[in-house]
Amino acid sequence: MAIAERTLRGPAARLVAAVLLSCALASAGANAEPPNEPTRVLNRTEGPGRQVELTVHSAAMARAVTVRVLPAANPDAPAPTLYLLNGVDGGADGNWFNRTDIGEFFGPRQVNVVVPFGGAGSWFTDWRADDPALGRQRWTTFLTRELPPLVDATFRGNGHNAIAGISMGATAVFQAALAAPGLFRAVGSFSGCASVSDPLGRTVVSGIITGHGGDPNNMWGGPDNPLWAANDPALHADKLRGLSLFVSASTGSPGNHDTLDDPRIGGDPLTLADRVVVGGAIETISADCTRRLRDRLVELRVPATVTVREGGTHAWPYWQDDLHAAWTQFEPVLAAP
Description:
Layout: H1 10-27, E1 40-46, E2 52-58, E3 63-70, E4 79-85, H2 96-99, H3 102-106, E5 112-116, H4 139-155, E6 157-166, H5 168-179, E7 184-190, H6 199-211, H7 217-220, H8 226-230, E8 244-250, H9 269-300, E9 305-309, H10 316-335
Parallel strand pairs: 4-5, 4-6, 6-7, 7-8, 8-9
Antiparallel strand pairs: 1-2, 2-3, 3-5
Helix pairs in contact: 4-5
Organism: Nocardia bovistercoris
Protein name: Esterase family protein
Signal peptide: 1-32
């Protein structure tokens, strides 16, 4: 009997099958990625003050993302959801839970408060290519398509959503709302810059990315790539019509929270000097961006609450004040049928 006619069994058969499978995989492409796992909650940990920490596998980013949640006061009843985005460090240094009073402020309220962590230097947007330093960034997809269904299913979300963010996150909130019309009813942008495609905007965006070791070309391409304009909320401000908009910044000069008595300063003159000098300079840029967005919204007759307060730096005490003020505007919007 010729070898081609033999019936192989046992170890010999398994060896041939393994070889054939290897050849098939090779023919499909040596660099082909294995099928990704679906988005799901990998782990849930109960924390202090009713906080819940979720480890969520993102199919879009092919990795785990930490998400902290303050569930609504009555977890057995449906509730709206407020998503809060951190700043440039993704929450590693300071975040909504450890730098503001959201635990006390929202504790008695019937709203789920959701804070994603990670994404330092990513602008919380979808990148066109994976970055050698920052990895795969698909934050718009995560925030608009992957996370909300999980939150609603886990914490009885009723589908009435708002999103707010600070600094880098204050730009991403507009992008998320524009990418998913109807998902959010309200948007809060505190000390951000919506104009990302003009020369100043590109310089700021690129500087933050390179400061975290990334390549700006992997996000939206080179300066002439149309993706910059496509992701510029100021250029598409007409599409924000119908949302409850709350936009704020300070002038950058020292304000009422910029004192040695502020708990976050802790009486340290060097910390205060850093806030006044560095935080003041950053906030000056945010104020200019906010004024330009205000003018654009007025031109388009898009209703919005836009405030540039006289005095104040790029710092958490002002963002806490902004969130309190924004919530007064957002709460009835989220409660409406």
